[in-house]
Design a protein that fits this description.
Layout (H helix, E strand, L loop, with lengths): L3 H12 L3 H21 L2 E3 L3 E7 L3 E4 L6 E4 L3 E7 L1 H7 L1
Helix pairs in contact: 1-2
């Protein structure tokens, strides 16, 4: 599993920049991605598309007590990989 720090280390090694700069670069990229995905779809060519999805209000049930309750709508960020990304993964 890759973590944010391991990705920063890889960026630092690949680009020949300091670890501090690579962490800043990754943080800024993720911040921009979060801001933009609130408004619209974010498409990164040859990688994939990030889009916002709102789950509908629904009824949930505690399996232990069988008590029902309302699950409020939530916002989710959905990622759909591009064909090239799928080819690399498969």
């Amino acid at each position: 599993m890759s973590t944010k720090s391991s990705i920063s280390r890889n960026i630092s090694n690949e680009l020949g920049i300091t670890l501090k700069d690579s962490k800043l670069l990754l943080d800024k990229f993720l911040l921009i991605l979060k801001k933009e995905s609130k408004l619209k779809k974010v498409k990164l060519s040859a990688f994939g598309t990030f889009s916002k999805h709102i789950t509908p209000k629904r009824i949930g049930r505690n399996p232990k007590t069988l008590e029902s309750y309302i699950i409020n709508p939530t916002k989710k960020l959905i990622f759909k990989p591009s064909v090239k990304t799928k080819e690399i993964l498969n």
